[in-house]
């Protein structure tokens, strides 16, 4: 009797594991392949468990690098990016990336260390109320109070991050919770009564949209990141081709519809194409799919799709009617909704006049710039990038002029090749995001297109390229200025270039070399072609510093407060 | 216009912070807010009064609140037939002459005297906001020392009018 009691007791004892071990198990349960992180005091127990595990961990050189890398990873793989950072400054360094992921709906699960529960609230060393700080910029967040809660919280967090409208979820783990032990238990099914995203569209609204399509003479589709998040590219293509509806795309929606398709009008918005913007201005039926009618897209709302019946397909009901009055609201995931539309399709409308008008706009007013062989034009640079990579590369950018040129001239033929900071407009995003993308999709070439300003915000991540020998190619679009700021100062502030010119800058090639990375400075088109071809073949990291026309501006452009029909610089 | 929104929330720490933070972020100004337990101890009910410009903003507010993971249900009660109550505690200065006068004055309001001292009385009154405002105005000439109001709590009536006057900006 006594022996069996001991044995029983022993088995209970061995099934007790620490919070840190539960954390590792939770990651394994969610099939997490890689963590992006940075250690520190409050996460020492977790890093110790990590040391003993097989889990892959990419050590970035700054927490901001870790979270942007996780964003890049999530963007190309469709899986949540996982981040680990310590308490206090470690956690607050993540804030920009969390806000970026929130506004661009990128699924992330972020783990932060916290001071022990016994000292929370005492202004302890490296204590910051990260749950309070990130409340408005996360889809949801948690602080774990007991080790036994961790498995359930992790399961919920991964579910919340990657379903519905995707987004960042933060889990704050106090140090003592990671140390304390709990029994390993099977986590029961997720129970979240307050979270039940609608995926299937209301069939009555689908019917109404089909009817509206018959009535319409000038329909246009506006497709956004929701198409990519739902992997609805095929359904979109079928829908657009069957009805012959032209497609305008948002910045984040690029790649959701093939750029060279005859129905594709290109990017819409502040620096969008004439055809796209005029289609949105003049249409009589606007079908938004997974796009949120952001101000950079719509311009002045008083002139946006004024004569149109607006149909809006979105997984987030709060987006419908937020900025643009909507007659046909359809809450649902883009994939399910477009398939429902394809299944219930009836007669087709005749839009041939409309399409020929827009096709004429496309050929008459294409994106254009003044060519000058004596200089390297940034627009040409993007076209060369496309040529040399055959449009197959994953391209990531920061925010600003180089971002717009990449969006305009790289010509995205396939989905999930475009990573950019859209909503938040984060400088320093592109390079670490490219690192994450390369980790997620090692088989594809990855190019970080960055400005000389933005690159200097996160260039410490060159250390990661060196460390992992990741063949990411960094293309610096170097105009020795904060180009977009300079452009606005030129146009709207009578050329008072207040603190936007970066004449003093490091020698980026020497800098790369200090990290053991090859680099080259390119001043002509042939320099770029040569260096890029070599870099792609070498399968090694590379920094290409491209000296481009310094005072080049992004056109066409819609000035703030103006409508989509009031574009300037339509012809170069 | 003034709107009464009722939110059923999970009784977890931080929920109220999440809710009010969301209102701040979207620039809604809370006039008053009440929170309390419901018939289910795991669930609390928040009733808040906000000033909203138009129906579109009101719809946006309800939708944004509904997006929160630990908010279970959100209802805009404004155009519903409902019973709503607010409680106020009012401390009024008195003299021996005015004490009985005040007692008579408050009678139609069904206010009760909770505490009496030599210089003042403390009254309790329940009702809708307008009734409380009216009583306060009546008492003001005597000298009000202190007022503490709870804010509105509300519940829809068991029977609702058939015609819904509220036209949602977009129908889900």
UniProtKB/TrEMBL annotation, chain B:
Residues 4-79 form the ACT domain. Its EC number is 2.2.1.6. It comes from Fictibacillus nanhaiensis. It catalyses: 2 pyruvate + H(+) = (2S)-2-acetolactate + CO2. Pathway: Amino-acid biosynthesis; L-isoleucine biosynthesis; L-isoleucine from 2-oxobutanoate: step 1/4; Amino-acid biosynthesis; L-valine biosynthesis; L-valine from pyruvate: step 1/4. Keywords: Amino-acid biosynthesis, Branched-chain amino acid biosynthesis, Transferase. The lineage of its organism: Bacteria, Bacillati, Bacillota, Bacilli, Bacillales. InterPro entries: Acetalactate_synth_ssu (IPR004789), Acetolactate_synth/TF_NikR_C (IPR027271), Acetolactate_synth_ssu_C (IPR019455), ACT-like_dom_sf (IPR045865), ACT_dom (IPR002912), AHAS_ACT (IPR039557), AHAS_small-like_ACT (IPR054480). It comes from the Bacteria. It is an enzyme of class 2 (transferase). Catalyzes the conversion of 2 pyruvate molecules into acetolactate in the first common step of the biosynthetic pathway of the branched-amino acids such as leucine, isoleucine, and valine. Belongs to the acetolactate synthase small subunit family. This is Acetolactate synthase small subunit. Pfam families: ACT_AHAS_ss, ALS_ss_C. PANTHER family: ACETOLACTATE SYNTHASE SMALL SUBUNIT (PTHR30239), ACETOLACTATE SYNTHASE SMALL SUBUNIT 1, CHLOROPLASTIC (PTHR30239:SF0). GO terms for molecular function: acetolactate synthase activity. Dimer of large and small chains. The keyword Translocase does not apply.
């Amino acid at each position: 009797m006594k022996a069996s009691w001991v044995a029983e007791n022993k088995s209970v004892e061995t099934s007790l594991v620490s919070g840190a071990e539960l954390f590792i198990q939770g990651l394994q349960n969610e099939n997490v392949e890689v963590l992006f992180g940075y250690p520190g005091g409050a996460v020492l127990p977790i890093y110790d468990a990590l040391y003993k595990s097989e889990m892959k961990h990419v050590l970035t050189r700054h927490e901001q690098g870790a979270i942007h890398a996780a964003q890049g990873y999530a963007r190309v793989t469709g899986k949540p990016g996982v981040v680990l950072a310590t308490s206090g400054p470690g956690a607050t360094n993540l804030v920009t990336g969390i806000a970026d992921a929130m506004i661009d709906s990128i699924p992330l699960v972020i783990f932060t260390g916290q001071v022990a529960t016994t000292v929370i609230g005492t202004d302890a060393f490296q204590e910051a109320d990260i749950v309070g700080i990130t409340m408005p910029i996360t889809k949801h967040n948690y602080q774990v109070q007991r080790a036994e809660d961790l498995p359930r919280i992790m399961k919920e967090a991964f579910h919340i991050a990657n379903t519905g409208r995707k987004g960042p979820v933060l889990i704050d783990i106090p140090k003592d919770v990671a140390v304390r032990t709990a029994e390993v238990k099977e986590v029961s099914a997720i129970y979240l009564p307050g979270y039940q995203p609608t995926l299937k569209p209301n069939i009555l609204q689908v019917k109404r949209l089909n009817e509206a399509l018959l009535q319409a003479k000038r329909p246009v589709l506006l497709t956004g990141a929701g198409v990519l998040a739902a992997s609805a590219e095929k359904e979109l293509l079928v829908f657009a081709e069957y009805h012959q509806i032209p497609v305008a795309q948002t910045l984040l929606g690029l790649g959701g519809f093939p750029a060279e398709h005859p129905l594709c009008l290109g990017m819409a918005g502040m620096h969008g194409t004439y055809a796209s913007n005029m289609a949105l201005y003049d249409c009589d039926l606007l079908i938004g799919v997974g796009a949120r009618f952001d101000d950079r897209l719509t311009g002045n709302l008083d002139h946006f799709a004024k004569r149109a019946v607006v149909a809006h397909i979105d997984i987030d009901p709060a987006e419908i009617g937020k900025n643009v009055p909507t007659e046909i609201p359809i809450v649902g995931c883009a994939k399910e909704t477009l398939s429902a539309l394809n299944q219930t399709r009836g007669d087709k409308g005749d839009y041939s006049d409309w399409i020929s008008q827009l096709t004429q706009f496309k050929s008459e007013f294409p994106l254009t710039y003044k060519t000058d062989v004596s200089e390297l034009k940034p627009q040409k640079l993007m076209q060369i990038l496309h040529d040399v990579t055959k449009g197959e590369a994953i391209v990531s950018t920061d925010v600003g002029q180089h971002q717009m040129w990449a969006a305009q001239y790289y010509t995205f033929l396939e989905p999930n090749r475009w990573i950019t900071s859209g909503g938040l407009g984060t400088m320093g995003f592109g390079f670490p995001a490219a690192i994450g993308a390369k980790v997620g999709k090692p088989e594809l070439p990855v190019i970080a297109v960055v400005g000389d300003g933005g690159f200097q915000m996160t260039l410490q991540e060159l250390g990661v390229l060196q460390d992992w020998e990741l063949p990411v190619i960094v293309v610096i679009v170097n105009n020795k200025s904060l180009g977009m700021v300079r452009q606005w100062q030129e146009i709207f502030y009578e050329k008072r270039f207040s603190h936007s010119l970066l004449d003093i800058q490091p020698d980026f090639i020497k800098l790369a070399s200090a990290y053991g990375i090859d680099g080259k400075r390119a001043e002509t088109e042939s320099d770029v072609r040569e260096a890029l071809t070599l870099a792609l073949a070498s399968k090694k990291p590379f920094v290409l510093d491209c000296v481009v026309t310094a005072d080049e501006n992004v056109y066409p452009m819609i000035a703030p407060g103006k409508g989509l029909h009031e574009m300037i610089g339509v012809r170069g | 216009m003034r709107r009464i929104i009722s939110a059923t929330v999970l009784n977890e720490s931080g929920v109220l912070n999440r809710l009010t933070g969301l209102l701040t972020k979207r620039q809604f100004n809370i006039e008053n807010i009440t929170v309390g337990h419901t018939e289910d101890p795991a669930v609390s009910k928040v009733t808040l009064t906000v000033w909203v410009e138009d129906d579109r903003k009101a719809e946006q507010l309800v939708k944004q609140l509904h997006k929160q993971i630990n908010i279970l249900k959100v209802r805009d009660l404004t155009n519903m037939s409902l019973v709503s109550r607010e409680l106020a505690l009012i401390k009024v200065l008195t003299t021996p002459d005015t004490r009985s006068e005040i007692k008579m004055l408050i009678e139609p309001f069904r206010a009760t005297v909770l505490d009496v001292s030599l210089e003042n009385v403390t009254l309790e009154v329940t009702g809708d906001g307008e009734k409380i405002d009216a009583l306060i105005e009546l008492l003001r000439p005597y000298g009000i020392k202190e007022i503490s109001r709870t804010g509105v709590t509300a519940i829809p009536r068991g029977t609702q009018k058939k015609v819904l006057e509220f036209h949602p900006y977009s129908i889900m």
